[in-house]
Design goal:
The protein has about 230 residues and is of the alpha/beta class. About 15% of the residues lie in helices and about 20% in strands. The protein has a single domain, classed as Leucine-rich repeat, LRR (right-handed beta-alpha superhelix) (Alpha-Beta Horseshoe).
Length: about 230
């Protein structure tokens, strides 16, 4: 009888040790591993080990809150199932070899504070669902091949402090409402084909900013430098 009780205790402890995250979250991580050629990562995952031992994954209260895999040779696409990781606060996949588009399901990550895909080969448009990331502080999409416009939905991100889309192929007008975003500190949009409209400039000036088109900088009072790229007039 004593041996049976000990067996039950050890079984329970083993279950508690490995049952760290939900099935859907674990599957989303495995999808990321598969779709980005996990076997060839610089630091790979042993899928037979607990998720808490996987490189770059942070778990809190049995939920995945951080994925940080920058400079890790991820090569492939971002799976749609990334949207199942609804407790993520930081998704850092910069400086890899990611291709394809940013899935619209990224908008499901409403706890996300930092989203960083810098230095990849992503193409297509920035999904409008980015505007659903109501907790987002930083959006880093620089040095990709993104096209289209900066979606108007980013103006809904009231806690956004950094918007970095430097070095893409974006076009159109910068959403004018960004000019009076109360928390925005850095708007980094150079090396695109974006237009700085008069309305955008006027709104910046009306909120205490100084404008220098020759140096291609907008310098708000009490804020860090915001870099833009202006078009030359013929």
């Amino acid at each position: 009888m004593k041996n049976i009780q000990l067996t039950i205790v050890f079984t329970f402890l083993s279950f508690s040790l490995f049952a760290q995250i939900s099935t859907s979250e674990k599957q989303a991580l495995q999808d990321l591993y598969t779709s980005t050629n996990g076997n060839s990562w610089n630091t790979t995952w042993d899928l037979n080990q607990p998720v808490s031992d996987w490189h770059g994954v942070t778990i809190k209260d049995d939920k995945v809150i951080i994925i940080s895999l920058l400079f890790n040779n991820l090569e492939g696409t971002i799976p749609n199932s990334i949207g199942q990781l609804t407790n993520l606060e930081n998704l850092e996949l910069s400086f890899n070899k990611l291709e394809g588009t940013i899935p619209s399901e990224i908008g499901n990550l409403k706890s996300l504070k930092v989203l960083a895909f810098n230095g990849n080969n992503l193409f297509g448009s920035i999904p409008t669902t980015i505007g659903n990331l109501s907790s987002l502080n930083q959006l880093h999409l620089s040095s990709n091949q993104l096209t289209g416009t900066i979606p108007q939905s980013v103006t809904k991100l009231e806690y956004l402090e950094i918007l970095n889309v430097f070095d893409n192929d974006l076009s159109g007008e910068i959403p004018s409402d960004l000019a009076h975003s109360k928390n925005l500190k850095q708007l980094i949009v150079a090396e695109n084909n974006l237009k700085v409209t008069n309305d955008f400039s006027i709104e910046l000036l009306s909120h205490g900013a100084s404008l220098d088109l020759e140096q291609q900088f907008i310098i708000p009072e009490t804020k860090e430098v915001i870099a833009i790229e202006s078009e030359e007039e013929n």
